[in-house]
Each structure stands twice: as structure tokens, then as C-alpha cells.
Fold each of these.
Amino acid sequence: MYQVLLTRRYLFSKVMPLLASLGVMLCSAVVLVTWSVMGGFLVMLINTGRTMAGDVVVRWPGTGIPHYEDLIKRLEAEPSVEAAAPVIEAFGMISPPDGSTEGVVIRGVDERFAGVTRYAEIIWWRRPEAPLPKDTERRDPRLGEISGTSWDELYGQGLKLQRRDPRTGDLRPAVVPGIHVMGTSRRTREGFYWPRVTERRGSDGTREEINQFMPRDGSVTITVLPLDSKGQPLEPFSSVLPVANEFQSGVYDYDSRVVLVNLAEAQRMLRMQQAKRLARPGEAGVVEQPSGEGFAGQDSPPALVDDPARVTDVVVKGRGPMATSAEARALAARVEAVYTKFAQDHAGNVPDVMDVSIMTWEDQNRTFISAVKNEISLLLVLFCFISITVVFLVIAIFWSMVREKTMDIGVLRAVGARASGVAGLWLCYGLAIGLVGSSLGLGLAYTIVGNINPIHDWMGERLGIVVWDPAVYYFSKIPNRVDAWHAAIVFAGGVVSCVVGALVPALRAAFMSPVRALRNE
Amino acid sequence: MTILQASNVHKTYRLDRVEVPVLRGVDLQVREGEFVAILGASGSGKSTLLHLLGGLDLPDREPAGRVTFQGVDIRARGLDTYRAADVGFVFQFYHLLPELNVLQNVLISAMSMHGVFGYLSNRAAATARAEALLRAVGLSHRLKHRPAELSGGERQRVAIARALVNKPRLILADEPTGNLDRVTGGKILDVLLDLRAKEGQTMVVVTHDEATATKADRVLRLADGRFGAS
């Protein structure tokens, strides 16, 4: 009983416990603010990594999966599948108008891609719903009008990967590169982009400014290396394609290396479109009568069979958020079951289920996610060090407080307090400081994290300190949510650290000789 | 009837590598209800003996000596229990807890003795007893005051109330008037003796003040760690 009474009195009558509480408060707040911001940042990164991937992908690179439309139909008949879309993935090269050539990843997609990924959200050149948080002066060019076209038209072009030819009015298959692929846009500190303007000097000395806004009238040359049906490389194939839009996923690797190409065009370039081929020996085919001179040196024309169009990937979106690994794995299992039946029904014409890869989004981003998890582990190690610092802080403060309160300890022992009771007093005191300090720390952390963007803006304006530069970080807003579980862990960590820190001084007090304590030796 | 007995009690302190014998085979018997005064010069071992009698310290193991209370070795009874239930201490420098008020300083003894649940169930009785004692020592108007707001004499009255709140059978006082002027010291001693007379406790007082000793039933003189002629 006296423990509670004295703890209450000690807590508010001395500077030392207030300093200890202050120390615990600052440590708890620092840990929670760091964890909230960094944790939020990492979650945003992981979510961004999912932007271009479905929940599950069926992959057979190289020659590709034929009859994929049948597979998609079967998959979409599954209750756990919301949608599926065909994708071709291949390596290629892009040559922007400046004459340079870059190696890129070509992804052939059609309109269905937006139904299985968050592609529709990352098309950059469209009118934003609101100015970016840091764009207080509304300088984002997308907030104004655009000459020669409209933002809605550009957005539609991006979704369909087509662009209207200004001369003929026909829709042409087009590309949508990542916004850093061509280097034609400059990122600002506010987080938006300006198309670069280059200057051309004429032979007569005149200067002409050229706006490199590619989605309006720019084209690029895409070169790919197609494979035949046996996987052998053929001659490189180049095609000049208009730019329909650009995307910004937030992951630099994607934004600087991926070019989305109209699926039909990608199939044509990679020779994966529907075609006729010679029937293999024993394969039933259709003999087409020659219309002209016939086949020289042959008794009869060869039999032809339909070679169906192929894609390398079928991307699947599950029903529901698919937030956990278990949900994605369950979906992958269903996809595998569907593919097994599909392979049986098309035996000999499609890859066997053992040959194709069926991967969840986590499997696809394993390297990236591992790096993120390593960062979280590193963060937790740092938290451990901070907790140890708190323990030593409390030990140091309590040690000197026990020294200061030696006489009180002697008096308590003289009136019959047990050694365990005296130890309990200091542990109770440590608990109280932990509770007060951690509570204040949580309050401070919630206040800071909740207002971190205004605080950061204020620091930038008044002090010129910009820690979170949108030109470097892709997220123009600092994560400002405190996870309740993180808060609970930090709170418990702060309290436990204080109790552990109080343990050594408590034992010292408990084992102190009453006589020596009364003499204050 | 003997209530407190010390037999062949030795106590040696070790200062670095030097052994300093303080008590050299003290024997003492105190009868129930008796007031014994132990006189001695500074450094004669008076306070050390009082600490041993009160269970704040233990005699040397060799040669084996012991302190018994009501015929039972105080170690067997449990030193904490003995100090909480059977003994009330009054110190020269009062030793009040500065963060607590007068009433709380008195009640701290009751809290120590009863434990959390015991105290909560006896709270009203303990508080009434503490208030009655503080009234008896003339401090009923100072219950909420802190020790820093009291005079030396008032602080010692609080210490006396604290020593008596658990109704101990034995009061051990270490120079109870040593830090007070003669008039105040005299009044404090009268208060202590009055209360003792009402409640019938045994009391052992160590002092170097002859005037205090004259009020005792028996006077023992401690010199060089042993009792001389009384």
C-alpha cells in the first residue's frame, strides 16, 4: 500500500522522475514516429509494387500459352476470380526521337489489363481529381487545358493503348512507356512533371522550341526479338509506334524500364498472333487449293493448321482485397486447378501444368519484398537499441534516486517494510514512470504523425529543411497514420523497459542494510 | 517477566581491512513494562546495541550471541515481522518521510505491518488510531502538514506517534531528545512517558543525557562495548 502512496508522491515532487518520464516520452515518440513513417512508407512501396501485377499470374515465357482466351473464360467462371487478362512480356529496345536506344521490358497488354491491375490509376497524363498536396500554387500542367487534344482523350488513349492518327483519323496501336523511360519529362519538387522543351537552331539562325510532350504527337521505335514456335530466335523486328500516354507507378524500376505495348501489336511484332502453319506429320490439317501456279516440285499442296495466338502471361485478379499471402496462395491453388483441366482439354497444344509457373504477386516481387522486410528487420533492431537506451536511462536515474532516498529506505525497513516490499516500491515507481512517459510519448507521436505533413511544410518554408523531397521520393505525401498495434507495442516496450531498468536499483534498495540506510552511508 | 533479552552479543564493524569491535559480549534482560535507560559516551556502542535489540542488525555469528523477544529468537520470529509488529522506533533525527504529510507518516507503519489487503480492511481503525495518537501528542491541527513545515519538537512528536501506531510491546528510542533544546526535549520525553504509561509498553532509551536517565526504572552504563555497574 505504501508503494502506491510513495510512488504517487515521488512522481510529482521531484525533478528526477519528471526527467525520466520525459526521456521515456521522447524515446517512445521517436520510435513510434519513425515506425509509423517508415512502416507507412514501406507499405506504400509494397502496394505500389502490386500496381502492375495481378494477384496471380500464369506464365510460360518464350513460346507462350495458346488458347489463352479459353483459359481466361474458364478462370473468369471461377467464383474466386474477378477478372483475368492476357499479357506478353519480352525484352526489347526503345528508340525515342533523340536517337538514343535503351533496353526495356516490353509488356503487351489490352484494355483488360486495367481490370486486373491498378493500371488505370497510374496513367499519368490525365486531369487529377485534386492538386498534389505540395502543389499549393497549382502549377501542375494537368490542372490547365492542353492544346490539340484533351486530358480525357489522353486518358482514354492510355487505357486502350491506341492513338488516333491526325491525318487519317484511324486508331493506331500505341505504346505507354513508364514516365522515366524516355527522359522527356522533368519531375518537380512538388511531385508533378513538366514535359521537357528542347531548342532547335535552324540553318538560318532561327531558334525553334520543341515541346517534347510525347502523348500528343510523339512516336518511338520499338525493336523486339521474336521467337518461333520452337523458341528459336528470329530476325529482330522494329516498328514505329505512337505514344498514347505515360504511366507513373512510383517504383523507379518500372517507371524507367517498362513499356506497355498494344497487345495485338506486340503479338504481331513477336509473331505470336493467330496464323496458319504447316501441319506436323500425323497432324490433321486443311489443304488449301493453290489459286495460281501450284507448288513447284510437290505432288500436292501441304496441309495447313491454325496456329492460335499466344501470350506469355495470363494475369488473374481475385475477388476481394487479397491482402494476405494466404488469400493469394488459395487463389493460386484455384488457378492451378483450372489450368490443369485446361491443359487436359488441350493436351499436346498447351504447356503442361508442371511446365508453367503459377505465381502469386508475392512470388513475383520476392526480391523486392525481401528487401522491404530486411529494412523492417533493421528498423526493429534499431528499436531494440533504443529500448536498451531507455533501460540504461532508467537505471541511471533510478540509481541516483535510490541514493537520494537511502534514508527513506532505512525508515521503511525500520517500520517493518520487507525487502520485497521496498523492491516493489521501486518497481512500482518504474512502472509509473513507464506508464506516464509512454502515454505522453504516444500522445506526442500521434500529434506529430497526424500533423507531419503540415510540420514538414512549415520546416521547409521557415527553416529551409526538406527531408521528404517529392523529387526523390515518389510519394508526395508523408505517411501519416499510426498503426494501433505498433502504438501498443511501443507503449508496452516503454513500460517494460522502465520496469526492467528499475529492477537493478530496486534490488539494490531491497538488499540495503537498514542500519547503513538510516545512517545514509 | 523478561520480555527482551540479549545474550553474549558481539558486534564488530569492518572498516576496509581494520576490524573495529563495538560490542564485546553484552548481556541484557528487560522486564515487561520496564523503562531502561542506557547511558554511554559517543562511540560506546549504544546505538549499535539498540539496532541489534530492534532487529535492524544482527549480532556477530562468532562468538554466537542472540536477542530474544518474549523468549523467541528474533531471527526465528522474522526480523521484518518483529520490527513491524513488536517494536516501535524513535530516532534522534526523527526520520520522517518528507513527501508525506503528518498523518501519512504515522500511517506508513500500519501500511507496512498490514500489507495491501490487510491495510485496506483496517484502514478506518488505523486512521482513527493515528489521529488519536496525533491528538494525544498535540498535533491534531497539523495532520495535513509536511515535515518541513514542522518544528523539531513537532517532528519528534510525529515520530513518537508513528512508533506507537501499531501498538508495539517494545519502544526503542535512540537519543529522542538529542536534537532538541532542553525544554522541548523535556516535554517530548514527558509525552513519550505519558503514552507509554497509558499503553504499558516496555521502553529502552539510549542517551547520553543524565536528566533523561533519571526518569528510567533502571540505568545501564555502556563503556567499551560492555555494561558497567548500573
Amino acid sequence: MLGRFLAAVTLGALIAVPGSHARANGDSVIEYRQHLMRAIGGHMAAVAAVVKGRLPLTEHIAEHAELIEKAAELVPAAFEEQVSDGLTDAQPEIWSKMDEFVELNAEMAQASAALANAAEEGDMRDIAMAMQSLGKSCGSCHQPFRKPKEESYKQPR
Amino acid sequence: MLAIRTSKMTKPIIWLFGISVAAAAFGYAFILPGLGQTAKNVDLNAYSADVERGAYVLRMGGCVVCHTDIDNGGVFLAGGAGLETPFGTFYAPNITPDTEHGIGAMSLEDFYVAMTAGVTPDGEHYFPSFPYTSYGHFKTEDIVDLKAYLDTVEPVARPSQPHELIWPFSNRQFVGVWKSLYHTPEPFVPNDAESASWNRGAYLVNGPGHCGECHTARNLIGGMSTNTLEGTGKSSFSSGAPAIAGSRSTIRDWSLNDLVFYLQLGLTPDGDVSGGKMIDVIEHGTSHLTGEDLEAIATYLKSL
């Protein structure tokens, strides 16, 4: 009885999260963006683990690359609203140069498609080259638009 | 009365001042240029040059990264983009064998002295943006091979861009003082207690690879801290390179394999990519090294 009552209260509280509270909203935007980026990074790390460990899972590489391409489609909307304060490494330049940001993201999607192709062909050398250029395309966007590691909010201050 | 008395007092002061100025001028003109000039006496003809190895030494030394203007599609080794520092912007010169604008007129001896002692064929000091503090540990045969390779590169008649530095750092005379404090060009000495791979790694990291030039903190006049490779930190006077040794090392949890893979492709174990200058260092430097050498680098770094 008490359990059911508490559950109702908790659920009610969840639904009644104040949408008008800008701070909380900003934090949620950041949280979503970071998980989206981490998902891309996770697929990248998985591909790397297959190659590094010479695992007999070469066909998985193509799947991961396609999932990265899919995730890239979500990036522009995730960054539509400017939230550059708080626990984030997003640079305000994303919003002053949104066209460039979107373009670099599209190039990243192309690079992951190229990796998927290379993986389907199965030549490890080509796969490595495609991974390198996908990595470079990640970096080409992080360079202008993500705070460098030394300035990251994650650094102890 | 008062005026006369002061003038009597000022005379010796003027003399003292004059003598100090003269001493300083003498020191500036005759002592400073001599500081930090020492190059080891070695018989360079004892080695037979190997051009192909020299091409590999170029990658070991990461030379391409600074001496080619990569971002603007500059010609190979014909001079680099600016290296911004608190002292101003340094431009790595043209090192193609063009006799006027490159290093084509340099003899092997000149080249050896430049690499190890940081002194030009005219006897002037190079600025320490040319990392002779690390290159001083180069093996002689590697320098011989490197020069032989550089002689085969396509010469390019492109003038080197002059550095844009703030005074007093713009003055080459003062570099001698800096060198006497921070530059000890001693050839690499292997540690017999460690494996061959470890020793190879130590040589590559501290000598040609010159990793510490960015990954070690510097003081206000650009001297390197003794916390070698422990990163520059946020507040410090440099480019913001992470720690790759010591308790705050960012690669502590990486496996040997992770590190080798990173130096080949620039991908970190957590799916992230390298940033900043390291992108070029990997693409134009470490990714050209053999798996064996990368393992050696990883073995050494993991031991720190």
C-alpha cells in the first residue's frame, strides 16, 4: 500500500519536472549531447578493439560504422539550441559557425560510410586507412568546436 | 653648496656606471656568443650514409610536422607554419637542399653541429624552438643518414619566414645563456638493466621523438621542468600537452597495444581521437614508424 503510494508520488514528480526551469533544461540538453557523442565514441572504440585485438569479427566493423553514420544524423538537432554554459566542453563557436559545424558532421557521416564499405570489402589495410580518416574527421570538428582536454570541465580545478 | 656636494658624490657613481656598462658590453659582445657553442668532436666519416634509413630517421624526428606548412598544403620540408609561444611566433625554416633558401650549402659537419649544439654554420645560436635540447641525444649515425636523405629531397627556392619574437627573446646572443642552463648535448646512454626494447623506446622518446618538448612544463624563460613528460598543466606557460608519465599520466590505464594503435591511427581506447598538434605528429611522424619501434616507445612510456 505504502509502496504503491510512493511509486505514484515518484512518477508524478518525474512527469511534473518543471519545463520552464531553464537551468535544468540546459543540463538535460548537455546530458543528451554527451551521451550521443559517447555512443559514437563507443562504436569507434568497439571498431578499434576488433582491429587491435585481431578479433574474428570483421563484419561487425561495417555494422558499427553504419551506426555511427546513423548517429551523425542526430547531431545537428541535438546541438540546435545554444547551451554552452555548465558542465560541457561545447564551444560557443558551434552556434556562431553552425553551417561549418553541420558540414563537418556531414563529412564525418561520409567517412563512416567509407569505413562501412571498406569493412565489407574486408581488406584490413583499407579498413585501417578508413578508420584513420574517420578519426581525422572527428578531430577536425573537435579542434574548433570542443574545448581542449586541458580546459575541459572534467579537469580538477 | 648643496649642488657642489652632489656633483662630487655623482662622479664615482658615473664612473661605476660607465665601467658596468663597458663590462656588460664586453660580455655581450665577447662572452655571450661563446656560451653554449660546444659540439662533441666526432668522426662523421666513420659512418657510411644510408639514404633509406635517413628517410625513416626523418619520421623518427617528427621533422615534417614543423618544417612543412601542412594545413596550407605547403611544399614538403620547404618551411612550416608558425609555432605560437609566449615569446612570439617561430617559423621552422626551409630544410630542402636549396643552396640559397634551404640547407643545401650545409656540410655534414655543419648539420651535425646544428642538430646537436644548436649552432648555425655562421656560429650563431638557433632558438630552442629547434629542439636541439632533445636532438642533442641523437646517435651520430642517425644524423649522418638523415643528412644523406635530406640531400635527396627536391630543392625548393622558398625563403624561410623570419621569426616574429618579442624582445629580449628575439636576441640570439641571450640564447647562449639559456643553453648554458638548459642544454646538455650528451649522446644517449643505454640502461643495461632494461630490455633492448625499453632502451630503444627511451632513445626515441627523449632523443629524436623530442616528446618532452611539448609534454614537459616550461618555466618563464622556456626552460624545461625536471618533471619530464608529466604534462604542462592548465596554468603553465605552454601549449597544454597532457601528462604521459607520472601519477597524472593520461595513458596510465592504456595497454601497450592501445598505445601502439594510438600512435598509428590517432584513436584512443575510449573511441576518442587525438587533438591539437598531436594529430600531425601521428600522421606525419609516428604512423610511419615500424610496429617494433612503436612497441618500444610504448614499453618505455608505460614504465615511467
